[in-house]
Amino acid sequence: MRILVVGSGGREHALCWAIAASPVCETLYCAPGNAGIAQEAQCLDIKADDIDALVAFAEKEGIDLVVVGPEAPLVAGLADRLKAAGIRVFGPSAAAAALEGSKRFAKDLCAKYDIPTAAFGTFTDADAAKAYIRERGAPIVVKADGLAAGKGVTVATTVEEACAAVDQAMVDGAFGAAGATLVVEEFMEGEELSFFALVDGANALPLASAQDHKAAHDGDKGPNTGGMGAYSPAPVCTPALEQRIIDDILTPTVRSMAAEGTPYQGVLFIGLMVTTDGPKVVEYNVRFGDPECQVLMMRLKSDLLPALVATADGVLSAADLRWYDDETALTVVLAAEGYPGTYEKNTVISGIERAEEDPEVTVFHAGTARDADGTLRATGGRVLNVTARGRSVTEAQAAAYRAVDAIDWPQGYCRRDIGWRAVTRESGGA
Ligand code: AMP
Ligand code: GLY
């Protein structure tokens, strides 16, 4: 098969790495890719949001499957355009991608179909939103309805902070059109958990659980990032909890999307809060998590590609995925010093081959480019995902940090405590 992967991050490197290993894959392209992806795929000078150019390339090159990594092109209708051109695509239609593209759509779906989530109100008027906040009290959560590059959510500890978030979105227009509608919701207490499933429109194939660390610094402190590390499976996700997530959330979500006339096809990433009342939806994403995808791909034993095709063709019940069930995978993000704020670009990285001498380690590239002479340079905020497998989170963590220490990149930094909660659990701690 001829495959095109869309995107340029660590998630897409992991997808290309898994797809390139498939005996069914003849030719693999990635648009636009990065220096790590170039080891697996032919990188194209087409941006992930250039829908016209992506469709034209897929048509011209007779692509058999397009796998879309990021959410923005899906929300913008890339899957619809590809389908209209007769090209098979892994990823939801724009109407179904509203699960991530509109918090209001997601919350209304949950309310209509009794899918557990935080109590909420939806507002297009700042005064009405503030009146609701005053009535409910703090802590309370204010969310921009649309895509806001991960910055549209304020978990407010006071009523004043929540009202300021309303003004930021609605008066200052900090998120543009994405903040013209706000969802204000109850604060949920508990442990966060991510759950992934393939969905073919009617059927779901549960993949795995994962947890990530969004804060930039150790101890889950500092500014929020796209994710500084992750591990899978999440020890908090017991078989009983997983069954509850499937029965109470995954299955009803898939059924309700079909009932609404917007069947979901692709990977569904459910962000959950494990509360004393059971698991509740924090958010839906219409893509693999980044860096969660990297740990999922490391745990996958069987060929990913037939499962992606079965998802796209609506015959997922025939798919069969096998996992390294008794192993954990953990990834540590190496980021440029200063990220998520301003940081230097084009600094030189070396030592990746040394880091990968351990057969249980793979280094995925999230933001790199290579000079003509082979010099590897950092081009983004999150730059490398040092990923390791082990028989426990503790073992995988130790292997990942050994590999991190083999990499020479003075302008980079990472958290030193990825997986701490699970490691504490494994050592019999609280
Ligand atoms: P979201 O973009 O909706 O995932 O929100 C970003 C982050 O804000 C989540 O990962 C949670 O840590 C936090 N968050 C969102 N909604 C809530 C909520 N209702 N209660 C507590 N924390 C929340
Ligand atoms: N790591 C969180 C995300 O991909 O949204």
From TrEMBL:
GO biological process: 'de novo' IMP biosynthetic process; purine nucleobase biosynthetic process
Keyword presence, Coiled coil: no
Catalytic activity, as annotated: 5-phospho-beta-D-ribosylamine + glycine + ATP = N(1)-(5-phospho-beta-D-ribosyl)glycinamide + ADP + phosphate + H(+)
Example GO molecular function: ATP binding
Protein name: Phosphoribosylamine--glycine ligase
Pathway(s) of this molecule: Purine metabolism; IMP biosynthesis via de novo pathway; N(1)-(5-phospho-D-ribosyl)glycinamide from 5-phospho-alpha-D-ribose 1-diphosphate: step 2/2
InterPro entries found in the cross-reference section: ATP-grasp, ATP_grasp_subdomain_1, PreATP-grasp_dom_sf, PRibGlycinamid_synth_ATP-grasp, PRibGlycinamide_synth, PRibGlycinamide_synth_C-dom, PRibGlycinamide_synth_C_sf, PRibGlycinamide_synth_CS
Entry EC no(s): 6.3.4.13
Cofactors, names only: Mg(2+); Mn(2+)
Ranges of residues in domain ATP-grasp: 107-313
Pfam families referenced in this protein's UniProt entry, alphabetically: GARS_A, GARS_C, GARS_N
Underlying gene: purD
Keywords for the protein's UniProt record, in alphabetical order: ATP-binding, Ligase, Manganese, Metal-binding, Nucleotide-binding, Purine biosynthesis
UniProt record similarity statement: Belongs to the GARS family.
